[in-house]
Amino acid sequence: MRHSKNIAIVGTGLVGSLLALHLRRSGHTVTVFDRRPDVRKVEFSGRSINLAMSNRGWKALREAGVEEEVRKLAIPLYQRAMHVNSSPVYFQKYGKEGEAIYSISRGVLNRKMIDLAEAAGAEFRFEEKVWDVDLSEAKLYTGESEKGEWKEYDFDLIFGADGAFSRVRHKMQRQSRFNYSQHFIDVGYKELRIPANADGTHKLDKNSFHIWPRGEFMLIAMPNLDGSFTCTLFLPFEGEYSFETITTEAAAEKFFADFFPDIHEEISNLTRDFFRNPTSALVTVKCFPWTYYDKIALVGDAAHAVVPFFGQGMNAGFEDISDLMNLHETHDNDWETIFKEYQERRKPNADAIAELSYRNFMEMSSKTADPKFLLRKKIEKKFAEKHPEKWVPVYSRVTFSDKPYSEALKTGDMQAKIMDSVMSLPGIAEKWDSEEVEQRILSLLEESGNR
Amino acid sequence: MRHSKNIAIVGTGLVGSLLALHLRRSGHTVTVFDRRPDVRKVEFSGRSINLAMSNRGWKALREAGVEEEVRKLAIPLYQRAMHVNSSPVYFQKYGKEGEAIYSISRGVLNRKMIDLAEAAGAEFRFEEKVWDVDLSEAKLYTGESEKGEWKEYDFDLIFGADGAFSRVRHKMQRQSRFNYSQHFIDVGYKELRIPANADGTHKLDKNSFHIWPRGEFMLIAMPNLDGSFTCTLFLPFEGEYSFETITTEAAAEKFFADFFPDIHEEISNLTRDFFRNPTSALVTVKCFPWTYYDKIALVGDAAHAVVPFFGQGMNAGFEDISDLMNLHETHDNDWETIFKEYQERRKPNADAIAELSYRNFMEMSSKTADPKFLLRKKIEKKFAEKHPEKWVPVYSRVTFSDKPYSEALKTGDMQAKIMDSVMSLPGIAEKWDSEEVEQRILSLLEESGNR
C-alpha cells in the first residue's frame, strides 16, 4: 500500500474539492482550508457565472468516480441562441449531433463537490484564514487577522487552490525569478437572473446558451434546474454604456429596454439585480513556476486564471487535477517528479487557453454581429461539415476533445490564416459556397500541412 | 507662496533622493524612509552595475541645480571597446563628436544625492521599515517586523521610490483592476572588479565602455574615478556556462582564462569576486495605474523596472522626476491632475524603454559578434553619417535626446523594417556601400514617411 501523506489544500472551490476527493481516494489525509464560510450554509455570492461543463471537466469527474452524480445537476446545451437586434432568434449548433456543453450553477456544483469530498473523508476547515505559507517546510499559518495570533500547521504537501488572488501564490511570488502577470480587461460583469415561469418551466429555450451580442457589451443566459436562467451582463467599466454611466434605476431600465427588447418583461428583475449584485472584474493571471520542489503546487485559477469567454476556466482547472492524479498514478509518491512534470505539461496549455479565451472575448462581444465574420463562420462550417477529418473547428478541439489546448491554439492560428486568405478572394460574398472556394481551402490546407 | 505639503518618499535610492531634493526646493516638508542602513555609512552591496548617465539623467540633475556637482563624479565614455575573441580590441563611437555617456559608481552617486537632499532639508529615516500603506489616507506604517508593533505616520502625499520590489506598489497591487507583471530573464549578473594600476591609472582605456560579447554570456567594464573598473558578468543561471555549473575556483579560473584572455592578469581578482559577490536576477516590471488619486505615486523602478542593457534604468527614473516637477510647476498643488498627467505621459515611454532594453539584451549578448549584424550596423552607420537629418539611430534617440522613448521605439521599428529589406538584397555583402543601397534606403524612407 502507498505511503499516506498529510496534505493541505487551500481553497474549497471546485478545483480544491475535486482534488480533495481524489487525494482521499488515493489514501492520503486531506485538510481543506477556506477563509470564507461553508457555501452549503450561506447564500451564494451573486457574482457567479454559470459553468459550462465540457469534455475535460467530465473526464476529470469520471476519473474521480462522480460523473453520474454531477450529470444530474447539469442541463445540456446543444446550441447557441443568438438574439441579434431586430432579427428573430437564430441557432448555431455547437458540434456534431449529440455534442453539448452543460450548464451547471456554480453554487449547486460546489456544494455537491464538497459533500462528495467530505463523504470521502476530507476534513474541511471553513472560515479559517491562511495568512502565510512556509514553502520549504510546507507549513501553513492561519488566524483571525494578518497581524493577530497565528496557528501553525505542519503538512507534507500543500496545494494552492485558492483562486485568481491566491495567497499561496502570493508567497511564491516573493521568491526571485518568479514570473507573474495579472491583466484586467476593461469589461466587468454582473450576475442577473431571469426567474422561472409560474409553472416552473424556463422562459427561454432551455437547451440553448443564449447570447445578446451588442458590440461593446453582451448579455448571456444559461439555464438552471429550477427553471430560472443565470444571466451575465458583460459591460465596460467606463464609456457611453458602462457601469460608470448606468447609475439610476431609470437609466438601467432604459438600457435593458433599448438593447434587450425581446426580454422586456424581465426589465424589473434585471434592474433589481443590477443594483443588488456586485460588479466584478475579469482578470487573466499567468505565473511560473507553479510548484516548489516536492512541497507546494498551484492548481486551477491560482496558477492560471482566464477570462470566462471560452467557458473553460473550470474545465482547465479540472484537467489540472486529472493530469496531476495520472502523474501520481505513474510516479507514486515521488512528488518532486510529479510536480515537475505537472507544470511542464500544463503551463503551455494554460497559456493557450488564456489566449483562446481572450480572443473569444473579442469575438463574442464585437464580431458575432458582423456580417463578414458570420460569412467567414459559414464558410468554415460548410467546409468542416464536408471534410470533418480535415477541419475540426477550434471550438470543438477545445470543448469536445481532451487534446492539449496548445494544439488547438496552433491549429486555430493555421485555420485563421487560411480563412484570412479565403476572405480576401474577390467576390467571396457571392461565391462563398462554390467549388472554387472549397478547392482553395483544400490546397491551402495541403500547403500548411507540408510546411 | 505655494502651500507646503507634508510628503513621504519611500526609498532613498537615486530616484527617491532626487525627488526629495526637488520637493524640498519647492518648499515642501519631506521625509524619506528606507528599510536599509544609510549607504553613506556602510560598504555598498557588491551587486551594483555602474551607471551610464546620459542626456535624460543630466537634464533632471540640471533642473535640480546639481548637474555640476555630479559631473565631478563622472567619466565620459565616447565609445564602445569591443573585445571580440582572437581579434584586437576595436572601437565603436557612440554618437557624434563629443557625445558621450558617463560612467558613475552607483554607490558614489547615491551618497552624493542623499547629501544634497539632506542639505536641502529633507529628513532621512534609515533602517525604518515600511510595512503597510493606507492608500486613501496617505498613511505609512513602519516597524521592526511585519507582525510586530507599528508606528503610524500621516502624510499629504506618499511617493513609492522603493524599487523593483516596491512595498508601496505591493499595496496598490491588491486593488482590483491593477495590471501588473514581473518577468525575469534567464540571465543573472555578478559584480566583479578590475583594480587600478599601482600608480592609480586605469588598466584599460578609461573613456570606453568595454564589452566582451560571448554569445550566451557577456562581460562589461566601466571605469571609476579611483582607477578601477566595475565589471559585470551577465551569465545564464542554467546551461553549459552558467552560475549553476561554475561552482569551483578551478572552474571559474578556467572560464575567465578561456573566454577573456586579454585580461588574464585579472583572473585571480575576478575569481575572488565571483565567489564573494552575490548573483542577482534581472527583472522587467510593468504596472498600471502608477498613482492613486492625489495621494500616492510610484516613481522609478517601482513603476517600471527594466533590464539594464540600454543603460537607461536610472535615466528613465530621473526623467519621471523631471516630468513630475514640470507638471507641479504647471498645476501647482493640484496633485490629482499632476498624477493623472504624469502616468499618462510616462506609461507609454516606460513600456517603450522596457522593450528597447530587452531588445538590447538580445543584441548585446548574441549579435555583437555576428558578421551579418555588424554589416547591418555598418550600412546604417554610413547612411546615418551621410544623411544625419534622415536617420538618427535609435541608440542616439534614446541616449542623446530627450524626445519620448515611445518615439524612439517607433522609429526604431521603422528603421528595422528598412534594414531587413536592405539586408535581403542579393549580394548585399559586396555592394553594401554602393549608391544603389543608399538610394534603396532613401526610397524606403520616403515610402514609410508617406504611409
From TrEMBL, chains A, B:
<comment type="pathway">
    <text>Cofactor biosynthesis; NAD(+) biosynthesis; quinolinate from L-kynurenine: step 1/3.</text>
</comment>
<dbReference type="Pfam" id="PF01494">
    <property type="entry name" value="FAD_binding_3"/>
</dbReference>
<comment type="function">
    <text>Catalyzes the hydroxylation of L-kynurenine (L-Kyn) to form 3-hydroxy-L-kynurenine (L-3OHKyn). Required for synthesis of quinolinic acid.</text>
</comment>
<keyword id="KW-0285">Flavoprotein</keyword>
<dbReference type="InterPro" id="IPR027545">
    <property type="entry name" value="Kynurenine_monooxygenase"/>
</dbReference>
<protein>
    <recommendedName>
        <fullName>Kynurenine 3-monooxygenase</fullName>
        <ecNumber>1.14.13.9</ecNumber>
    </recommendedName>
</protein>
<dbReference type="InterPro" id="IPR036188">
    <property type="entry name" value="FAD/NAD-bd_sf"/>
</dbReference>
<feature type="domain" description="FAD-binding">
    <location>
        <begin position="7"/>
        <end position="355"/>
    </location>
</feature>
<keyword id="KW-0503">Monooxygenase</keyword>
<dbReference type="InterPro" id="IPR002938">
    <property type="entry name" value="FAD-bd"/>
</dbReference>
<comment type="similarity">
    <text>Belongs to the aromatic-ring hydroxylase family. KMO subfamily.</text>
</comment>
<keyword id="KW-0662">Pyridine nucleotide biosynthesis</keyword>
<keyword id="KW-0521">NADP</keyword>
<keyword id="KW-0560">Oxidoreductase</keyword>
<keyword id="KW-0274">FAD</keyword>
